């Protein structure tokens, strides 16, 4: 029988098990007056969560821009969710033609896709994509901090390989899945969202250790979340006969909304930052709309027209390839199958991006992101080494105590003192990726001069 995805599974309301340190937590009692569906609860959990709120102070493209008009990760995520709503409603109509779904199930698609868009950047570190590269580069040069000789024997060769892959190919998408899926650390902002929402944000359904990661430089889960990811995708019916994972159909729409927003809106930011001449971007927007008669429109109006045009083009691709997607055969994003004229316009955008990133790299270099994040990583990893060598909290090195209480708090460290070294490295990843640009800069200054070398 032909393999085919089932919407009865794809809209799963299941969540990860409530476990911490291997001990099951009792389920919370749902108030009798609860009127929200699990997917509406997902949306609310995200909106009121600290990791989502911190996106307001995380770089989208231009780090720590003085112009308040410039996008940050939060405004970008909200705009992506808005565009995705248009996709979701079209998807519900398309699905209803061939599937017997209830009105509530069809309505849930709207909430699922919007929630997926809100969290699509939630795992990104400070300083934008430059922050990801800094973490990878720093890790590759400082493995002795991750595997100190004083803790030799605390990990197997396989665990070491997995840890190295998680850090060497550090990926905001994988960190985002960790934050969105886990339940065992409210302090880090773990959200424990439904499997349907989690599946709808996954673009690269493989781990850091997978061969695809080396060629694509992308993956969607760390080794610590391997079992959780497998459970979610098994429940969603996204596991092929050979054991590999395929993409959730709604993930293509989440990705398309992101592709549209950052390509159009980042150009508008570049005009505000005086990187591009307004006329140049205005003409590109006109070309994307395909209607030169709209030359009288302002840039903001044209931007809306351009987004609407791209939504239509991306949707045609999704609709045309729907059967292939439902067979779990498509992996590539929708933009790779757009009409040639549309691809040409997006290629022009990509060329302009080279100029944007050239300007951005200069700023990031001036900020010293490598030294900022490197200093914080060094302090936290020395603290984790001290924790690994202590059987009681009062045995921690005094500098490590200060750093531990700064990053977490005394009670949390005491409660988790005996956790494996690998677990603590995950806590370091949570803390570093969760920082805002401003906080990372300030914390680095505070740590400057402290002797974490010894």
From TrEMBL:
Biased composition (Basic and acidic residues): 16-26
UniProt-listed CDD domains: HDc
Transmembrane annotation, as ranges: none
Keywords tagged on the record: Hydrolase
SMART domains noted in UniProt: HDc
The keyword Cell membrane belongs to this UniProt entry's keyword annotation: no
Ranges for region Disordered: 14-36
InterPro entries: dGTP_triP_hydro_central_sf, dGTP_triphosphohydrolase_C, dGTPase, dGTPase-like, HD/PDEase_dom, HD_domain
GO biological process: dGTP catabolic process
One annotated GO molecular function: dGTPase activity
A Pfam family annotated for this UniProt entry: HD
Domain HD/PDEase, residue spans: 69-272
Name of the protein in its database record: HD/PDEase domain-containing protein
Native species: Blastopirellula marina
